[in-house]
Structure formats: C-alpha cells, structure tokens
Amino acid sequence: MSQGNGHDHHEMSFFRKYIWSTDHKTIGIQWLFTALLFIFLGGGLALMIRMSLARPGSVLDSNYYWIMTMHGTIMIFFVIIPILVGAFANFLIPLQIGAEDMAFPRLNALAYWMIWPSAIIMLASFFVEGGAASFGWTSYPPGTGTEVMSTSGMTAPSGGSGGLGQTLWLVSVFFVGMTSIVGAVNYVTTVVKLRAPGMTYFRMPLTTWSIFITAILAVFGTPVLASGALMLLADRVIGTTFFQPSHDGNVLLWQHLFWFYSHPAVYIMVLPAMGIVSEIISCFARKPIFGYKPMVVAMSGIAGLGFIVWGHHMFMSGMNPVLGMTFMISTMMIALPSAIKTFNWLATLWRGNIQFTVPMCHAIAFVSMFIVGGLSGIFMAATPVDIHIHDTYFIVAHFHYVVFGGTMFAVFGAICFWFPKMFGRMMNSAWGYIHFVVSFIFFNLTFFPMHMLGQAGHPRRIAWSYDVLKDQGYAFLKEYQGMNEFITICAFVLGFAQIIFVLNVIWSSLKGEKAEKNPWKATTLEWSAASPPPHLNWDGKIPTVHRGAYEYGSPEGKDDFIPQDADLTKA
Amino acid sequence: MSARNVTVAMLLVLVVLGTWSFLNPAWELPPNIATYGHKIDNLYYQILWITGIAFLVTHLVLIYSLLRFGHKGEGTKAHYSHGHHHLETGWTVATGLMLLWVAVVQAQTWNEIKVQEPTAEDMFEVQVFAKQFEWNFRYKGADGQFGTSDDLYSTTELHVPKDRVVRLYLRSLDVLHSLFLINLRVKQDLVPGTTTRVWFNAMQTTDEARAKYGEKFDFEIACAELCGIGHHAMRGKVKVHSKESFAAWQKGRIAEQEEVDMSGVTNLWNGKPEGYSVSFWEYAGTIKPPRAEATH
Ligand SMILES: [Cu+2]
Ligand SMILES: [Cu+2]
To answer: What's the 3-state SS for A308-341?
Structure first.
C-alpha cells in the first residue's frame, strides 16, 4: 500500500496542505464545503419551485421544468451523495479503523477534483441555448432522446430537452458516476486492507460498516448508470437509437437501466445516515448499540435486496403487470431490514442514560422522520394502491421524509458530532438547538401536508395546479391551492433556517470553544486522535483495538465508556 | 425548557397532528366511480391503519424512552446490554409476516385489475392518442371498426357510457405521457413504440355526479408523467353518459364531423402527420418508416 509515500514530515505549502491535498481529512472537509455550497443552489431552486406552485402565472411557469430538474439533480448528485460518501466516508474511515490515510490517497484527491469538471459542466448548462435539462432527474427518453430535433423537420418537444442542456447533463452525470466509482473502490480497499491491529470486521463502528456497504453498492450500481448515460448520450449526439422507438429502440430500457442504479442510489443516500445515527444514538444513550450484528446484517440485506426492487418505480410504466407483482413482493421484503434497524434504535434508547445534545436531537429526529418516510413507502410498494398515488405528491412527501427528514437530519447531527474532530473546536450549541427546532417544525409543516395533496391526486412535477386568479387548472385541486400556499411559506422558513446552520459552522470553526480529544466521551478510535488529528492521524502510533465499538456503561470500566483501544490489563 | 422537553413536545405534536390528519374525514380519497375502485380504496385505508398503528406505537415508545431514560448525572451508568436474541427474532418474524400478508392481499387485487382483464363481449373500445399536451380519442363508428371513415373523434373530452366495460388503447406520438383518471382509479403510462391498455367500468354518470358534487363537477383527466413545458396544462375530462345521453352525443358528433373537413385529423391518425417525421401509427402497426426519414 502506498500509505505514507510522499508524506514526509516537512512543512507543506499552503497549496499542498489545503488545496491539492491527499490527506483524507482535508479531502473530507473539501467535500463537506463543496456540498454546503451546492445546498444553497439546490435549496434556492426548491424555493422557486414552491413559488411557482403557490402563485401561478409568473415567469416561473415556463421555467419550472428545468428548475425542478436541476433541484433534484443538484441535491442528489452534488449535495447528499457528496456529503455522505464524500465528506464523512473520507473523514471517518481511516480514523475509525485506525489507518493513517486511505489506501490510495492520490486517487482519493482525484475523486474529489473530478467533481468539479462535472459541476462546472452542470452549471454551464444553465446558460446554454435552450436552457438546462428539463425532463426531471430521471431524464426519461424519448423526451430526452434526440438533440435539436427540428433539424430533421421534427419539432423538438417544446420545452423538452432538445438543446445542449440535456447533453451536458448526461456528460456531467457520467463524470459524477466516475467520481463515485473511484471513491468507492478506494473505500472498499481501505476497509479491507488497512484496519488497525485488533480491528476485526465485527469491531468496526457502524458508520464505517454502512459506508463500506454503500461503497460496494456504488461499485456495482454506478457503472450501469454510467453506461446508460453513455447510451443516451450516443443517441443524442451520434445518432444511435438505443432508446428511439422510431427505430426499434426500447423506451423502457432506459427506465430499467436508470432505476437499476437509482434504486440502490436511494440507499446510497440513506445507509451512511443510518450508520451515523447508530453511532450518535449509542454514544448519547450511553449504551451499546442494541443488536450490533443484526444491524450489520440488516444493512447488508438492504444492499442485497436493493438490486432486485428497481421495478417498483415502473408499476405504471407499461411493464408486464406480472413482473410488477414480483417487484412488489421484493419491495415489501426490503422494508423488513429497515424496520429491524428502527426497532434496534428504539431498543438502544430503552433503559439508556440519554443526553440531549444537539447531535442527539438530530439523531432522534432522524429516527422519527425515517419511521414516517419508511411507512409511507409501503403505500407505493403496494401495486394497486400505487395506481392512485404513483407520480403524485404522495411520493414527493415520501422521499423528502427519507432524504431530508432522514438523511439531512443525520447529516446535521453528524456535522455537530464530528465538528470538534474536524476543526478542533466545539459547535455553538445554543444556535444548534435553535436551528434544530426550527428545522424540525418547518420540515414537517412543509412536507406532511404533501401526503394529503397526493391522496387527493395532485400530480407531481407540474408547474402549478390551480390558478385562482384566472380560475383555471385542475378543478379538483382548487380547494388545495391554500395548502400549496401554506407549504410554500413553510418551505421558505425551512430554507432560511439553514442559514443559521451554515453561519454556525463558519463562526464555530473560527471562534468556537476549543475542543478536547474526546468531548463526547465516545469509544471509537477517532476520539483517541488529537482534535483535529495531525497528518497521518496518530503521529505514527497506530492504536491497537481490544474490543467492540460501543462499550458504553460496561461494568468493567471505571467510567461509563471504554474506548476501543483502551488496554484494561495495563491499567 | 430543556432540550429533552422541547424534543419530546415536538414529537408529541407530530403524533397528535399526524393522527388527527389521518383520521380527519375531510381528507379522504377523491370520489370513486370505478367498479374495482373500492378495492383500491379499501387497501389504501387498510395500509393507512397498519402504518398508522406502527407510527403511533413506535413514537410512543420513542417518547416514553426519552422521558423515562434521561441522563441521571455524572457517574451513573445505563443498563448494559448488547441486544436480545429472542426479541430480535420476534420482531423480525412478526414484521416479516405482516409485510408478506400485505403483499399477498395486494397481489390479489392487482391480479384482478391488471393481469386478469375482463373479457366482456360488448366491451366499449377507445383509442387514446396523446401528443404534447393534448389528449385525443377515437371511437368506432357504426361498422364496429377502427380506422374507417365513420370513426368518431374527440379531443380533451373522453366520452364513455356508464355500466359498460371500457377498454382504452393508449398510444403516444411523441414522448411519455401518463393517463390519470382520478375518479376511475386509472393510471397508465403511454409509451411511444408500444400500445398499452387499461380498462374500467364507470358506475356513475357525469350528470349524477353533478347532482351530488355541484354544477361544475367533472371527472378529470391529468397527465401524470412529465412530458414537457405544457405538462401541467395537459388536462382533460371524462364524460360518463347514460345510454340515452351517449346516443345523443354520438349523433351530435356525427353531425358535427360531417360539417368540418376531417381529413387532417384522419390523416394524423392514419399515419401522415405533418411536422413529425416519425409517424406513430406506422411504427405502432406493422409498417416501419424508412430509416432516412427519421434520422436527426
Ligand atoms: Cu426504489
Ligand atoms: Cu403529458
């Protein structure tokens, strides 16, 4: 392994240390700030979506579809995945398994820097003729299948993705896919090869486990997305007809390829959050995680089953209904490991000694919101019920409960939790609580009513449903226009509350109270390194691991926690 | 105002509001007029009950734990346990069986609606022809065949008789669309290159519904698959007729069609559309357009 190569202890230039760094901690923080930057773009687009729905008739109507497409694309590819599998995977894997750095530090830097060409291409697509891609983050052909159709006398689908924007979108997504694969290969190798002495697989913290499993998902799933993107790109620019019905191409093939990746991608967006939450809950319940092995098995089960459920996105697509039935059964089954994990979190809290720190509040919110999001998923999995709620606001509510209510709250929790390790300073907790309370309340006020909209049949992805002033639109949604306006107001409060968080991050990283090595009295290895850890993490003294990851409240210890590397025989 | 109390209070409000909103009779599924619709609705409410109870129970356990097991100060320890094998097996098996049961119940209804289609002799058949941002419908004329000169056409409004099995053949000329008949519990994508189909049997006429829900009420059609810039405007209506009023509509439509020149419309449906080099009706049938015609 290349560990330590080129890592001599001479003073590095600013450029080497902070910009072109191969240190996994710096790269992790780079990913974090990149994602925090994009969250404002993605969030701003979300507010524009809400304005369009609340007040039909504005200039937003005709721009709605690219705004909606870019909101989804940016949030998924440039915010959620980068934070979870960029920032936290990078920062935590070596620290939690007792390694000095990643297995391939330069590849790791490459993976980060490859996100920029991809991001720049995506951002550039906002300014090209015809505008950015506008057929949703799913980019279903044939709406996206041909570039500038008018040249052949065929009218481009108006406002469809006929222009350069969609082509750039595909190129960008292809690069994001490459980033994912490169990163994932590195994570898997690091976990397999670089664990500290005594760190067996079943002593690894669940965060590392979750990222390990996620990386395996990414390695198997992403190439399918990347090849799908290449095929669609070829359709657009060199005239192949993979997805062109006019030449025997198969429209549904894209949906199969896309969801074969994108369903697992949903888990890429939630598994690491589950790992993080397990970590935080165990630490602040001061109690070992309940059912450590079932947790690992459940995550592996989710990953395995995750590859045979993609058809649940296609129940109404014209796919053979018998196939729909099998996908329903596999989808119902994938709810099981998620339920097991939830029960284990609750059981961890039971008879705990719970400390309500800011990260803990976020972790509790995750559990609550994940329960709502998980349960609402059962409605969509049930094929007959899905006939009514498919592609309505019900699904919008569902996945925002999972990805925002779930993953984003876990991310907030994770940032607060590992902030002292990342920056050597504590995050201001008063502002932390304020941000938490406002976010939790307004998140629910924004997304819970969407279940009702979906139940009423409000289609998703429409620029507006009922224009009260002009008295036109879907008449059955007229009475829900007030609810749409209410949601918009709440979304704005939710959006602006995030400024509190970012200001808190920036202020605390500069001015926060200095943090000690192990401010939370936690057990895992990263807390045995200095805050922040030096280059190579432990100054050459790799810790030896003596026990599992969550020895809280053990009768053996003097305190209510025994770090993984504490050697009790010597004490 | 400790962090614990605030968190618990917020969770309590969530539980109360959540339960209230799901039990609130004002928020129910839109009116259903399809023969099989009540089955879908019952399954929906069934899952609502199951998930509602799961939501309540898990949240009450969560709230109780947060209240009961708060930190007892420096030097205290939590109960030391790594898990419980029987408990783990117990909830796994129980949840697994519950999910399996839901799946089996659902599968039966799905099978009934989507796999086993009705084979009624006097089925009323309509061809649905979607293009960006318009729903078009073609009905058989007196000769009982599609594609002949006595075919009837309508745009935006789908006219069907009550109490008769209606089968729709769905085709798209350009991109994906999805036919969403809210009150008939129908949703089906239209996939360029293939014909998809759905069926329903309406139990209520538009007039009957208007007597119930008001003068302006209509069974609406929505497009549920993003299809371009006018997607939100791709609306339509299903007009369900009694026998007499359906005959009257047919008669009126025949007279209207005689007055206007229908050749443009028929050409469109018969595969000579203007503006599109890809002719849907050609590739949907047996004849393929020549390659050169449709290259970019
Ligand atoms: Cu999925
Ligand atoms: Cu449409």
So the answer is: HCHHHHCCCCCCCHHHHHHHHHHHHHHHHHHHHH
